[in-house]
Design goal:
- This protein is mainly β and 723 residues long.
- It has four domains: 97 residues; 142 residues, Roll (Nuclear Transport Factor 2, Chain: A), CATH 3.10.450.40; 393 residues, Distorted Sandwich (Beta-galactosidase, Chain A, domain 5); 32 residues, no CATH class.
- The strands form five sheets. Strands 9, 10, 11, 12, 13, 14, 23, 26, 29 and 30 form a ten-stranded antiparallel β-sheet that branches.
- Its cofactor is Mn(2+); Cu cation; Zn(2+).
- InterPro entries: Cu_Am_Ox_Cu-bd, Cu_Am_ox_TPQ-bd, Cu_amine_oxidase, Cu_amine_oxidase_C, Cu_amine_oxidase_C_sf, Cu_amine_oxidase_N-reg, Cu_amine_oxidase_N3.
Length: 723
């Protein structure tokens, strides 16, 4: 039987039981039309989880306390009264022996609170817009028939003109035929939708730079138009029909269109098969949702909001002969995607893809051999629909091993000297999420030297908008005829709950500086001196920091209760990323007010169980981040020295689109890495064997002798390990 873990996601049965209880309670309150936006695990307190699992809380805790008391298992739901729009949070507790839960509470949320938008709402809103008579008329004016109308429904950012009702915005496109590239035919208006009432509230037209007598001059203001006014008239320009050239990305459609024009086209036929095999099976083991691999041990959770959650992450130390804790919980906590075009309604484009949609809800069912290649283990997820009933997402997490190139090597260059080469392998825990036009591949990576990281690949299709012939586009790139892609950013926030050798941790900032003494001086005669500094960040306001490449600034999460025997530094893990980007908006902008976490690269605050989401629990349609969010927590100037802390790291991509990103985007990459720093006694991968791939052969007619049989002066190609 699979081992139980307090962070195991809710089962389908638990979701059904919890939803039934909540619906019964809401009926008692007179609410008959109810929409369930999410039902998920309410994680138990950190201290209870640690005690139940018997995880060390101090570097000298060699026989950690194991309580044997299973933490209470609870479910939380976000509910909407479809008549009034009121929002409720409901919580229940399941009995230890299983069965029907008991109600803990139902709390009505403050007016204006909005849970994450659901997949059903996104689908419903597309149909609302497609069937709206005014939308049909406007599309007809530029040659788009009703059956060609396609709509991407999005979160609306902040929209001040309609009060506190639940809203979405719709981007309108033309699709010329089945599966044809709709983003190649954007229309020149945007739609505001009342989500609960299922109706169009407003159609907005952006101003353009189309007057040949005033090149580059905008036809109207960048400010929003009034609700009562004529937005098209206020835009000060003529209608812009969508361009009609096909710009497909699906190979069969490209080939058919080329053939129609009398041109030859085919996929590449010179690419030889590359197969990944593990004839002896994989090197990891699963026990329920807990995985062990190459000295790593952790739990893999999944929820509708963050998707993959790694928790109780530990690493076996061969010198100490025990598992040492590293992180209590790791998650992709939030992201914001602000676009740079200032003409309304474009400023509404800055979605919180975690808090406003839920990455878990957007996760793909992954396909063997293409999304994940090799020997793959999959995990399913149980989420919920509007009725609160379970929905099974198959194969949303793929787990596999990958070759990672060279781990370490040295050749003694002296005559008769030995060479030794060790290849690296990494464990991948991955999900791929489709958020409207974009795809994000989130891959947690564990390596054999104790390094852990998160790699994000961005692909999919650019969000597009129309442009008139010869129109200047200072805030975007013309990726195709009549198609512009606005400049934008993808700003990611990763939440890290460190538990480096115990609960009480500190955050340190390390920099490298040149010696001040001038060249020729007694202190620095050759002028080459540089040294490093490390200082502890002691309060939450002091720990709001930005990267500085000029000083090679980085941060180290450490435990001051244990010092490395040689370096003298606290045992720790350092944070590394080449993707710390600045947020490119004004400090008082809507984006900065709603997503203040994106203004800085590192934040550290005291830990509490409810400090999970940097933009707040319910960021949908907020005017500004609530006080109970990251910027508010940091402003309290609390102690973060030698205590239980939680950190948020902000990294990402500034995307000025290229024509080569069109019609579908080759992946762009961003990532963050956590690397041991004075944590282990020495290189923890010395015991990784030097493997020789018996199936490697010479290429291009160089012979078919397996590399394992190749000899060089009596030694194998990898150095001839004695073991």
């Amino acid at each position: 039987m699979a081992a139980y873990h307090p962070h195991d996601p809710l089962t389908a049965a638990e979701i059904s039981l919890a939803s039934g209880l909540f619906r019964t309670e809401m009926l008692k309150r007179g609410i008959k039309s109810l929409k369930s936006c999410a039902v998920s695990l309410l994680e138990p307190p950190k201290k209870e989880v640690i005690a139940y699992l018997g995880i060390p809380t101090h570097p000298n805790d060699f026989t950690p306390y194991k309580s044997g008391i299973r933490p209470a298992r609870r479910a939380e739901a976000h509910l909407i009264d479809c008549v009034t729009g009121d929002v409720f949070v409901a919580v229940c507790t399941f009995p230890q022996s299983g069965g029907k839960p008991t109600l803990d509470y139902v709390e009505q949320q403050p007016q204006g609170t909005q849970p994450a938008i659901t997949m059903e709402e996104l689908d419903e809103s597309e149909q609302v817009v497609r069937n709206d008579p005014e939308v049909i008329r406007l599309c007809g004016e530029v040659g788009v028939s009703p059956e060609q109308i396609m709509v991407d429904a999005w979160s609306i950012g902040y929209e001040h003109r309609f009060g506190d009702i639940r809203l979405q915005q719709g981007f309108v496109y033309q699709r010329l035929g089945p599966d044809e590239h709709l983003y190649a035919h954007p229309l020149d208006f945007n739609v505001v939708i009342d989500t609960n009432a299922k109706k169009v509230l407003k159609i907005d037209f952006a101003p353009h730079r189309t007057d040949p007598s005033k090149p580059g001059v905008l036809s109207g203001s960048t400010a929003p138009h009034s609700v009562e006014g004529d937005s098209f008239r206020d835009s000060g320009r003529q209608r812009i029909p969508p361009q009609q050239e096909r710009q497909d990305y699906l190979p069969d459609l490209i080939k058919a269109e080329k053939a129609r024009k009398g041109e030859d086209w085919d996929v590449r036929r010179d690419l030889k098969e590359l197969t990944i095999t593990q004839p002896e099976g994989v090197s990891f083991q699963m026990n329920g949702n807990e995985i062990t691999w190459q000295n790593w041990k952790m739990h893999i959770g999944f929820n509708y909001r963050e998707g993959i959650v790694l928790s109780t992450v530990q690493h076996f130390d061969r010198d100490e002969q025990r598992y040492r804790p590293l992180f209590h919980r790791l998650s992709f906590a939030e992201m914001v995607v602000p676009y740079g075009a200032p003409e309304w309604p474009h400023p509404r484009k800055f979605a919180f893809d975690v808090g406003e949609y839920g990455l878990g809800m957007m996760a793909n069912s992954l396909a063997l051999g293409c999304d994940c290649k090799g020997s793959i283990h999959y995990l399913d997820s149980e989420l919920s629909n509007h009725a609160g009933q379970p929905v099974t997402l198959k194969n949303v997490v793929c787990i596999h091993e990958e070759d990672d190139g060279l781990l370490w090597k040295h050749t003694d260059f002296r005559p008769g000297g030995r060479a030794h080469s060790v290849r690296s392998r990494k464990l991948i825990i991955q999900m791929i999420c489709t958020v409207a036009n974009y795809e994000y591949a989130f891959a947690w990576e564990m390596k054999q030297d104790g390094t852990l990281g998160l790699n994000v690949k961005l692909t999919g299709i650019l969000n597009t908008y129309t442009a008139a012939k010869d129109e200047a586009t200072p805030f975007g790139t013309m990726v195709g005829p009549g198609v512009q892609a606005h400049h934008h950013q993808h700003i990611f926030s990763i939440r890290v709950d460190p538990m480096i050798d115990g609960i009480n941790n500190s955050m340190y900032e390390q920099e490298v500086h040149m010696v001040d003494a001038p060249t020729g001086s007694d202190e620095n005669w050759a002028g080459n001196g540089f040294y490093h500094t490390k200082r502890e960040l002691k309060t939450s306001t002091e720990a709001v920091r930005d990267a500085n490449p000029g000083t090679s600034r980085l941060w180290v999460m450490g435990n001051p209760d244990k010092k490395h025997y040689s370096s003298g530094s606290p045992v720790g893990y350092k944070v590394m990323s080449g993707n710390f980007v600045p947020l490119l908006v004004k400090d008082d902008s809507l984006v900065a007010r709603r997503a203040p976490f994106a203004k800085h690269h590192m934040w550290t605050v005291p830990y509490t169980d409810d400090r999970l989401y940097p933009a707040g629990k319910f960021p949908t349609q907020t005017k500004q981040a609530p006080e109970d969010s990251l910027e508010g927590w940091a402003a309290r100037d609390d102690n973060i020295s030698h205590t239980d802390i939680v950190s948020f790291f902000t990294f990402g991509v500034t995307h000025v689109a290229r024509p080569e990103d069109w019609p579908v985007m080759p992946y762009e990459e961003a990532g963050i890495m956590f690397k041991p720093s004075s944590f282990f006694k020495a290189n923890p991968s010395l015991d990784v064997p030097s493997s020789v791939d018996a199936k490697s052969v010479h290429a291009l007619g160089g012979g078919s002798t397996p590399m394992s049989e190749a000899k060089t002066e009596g030694k194998t190609c990898c150095g001839g390990s004695k073991l």
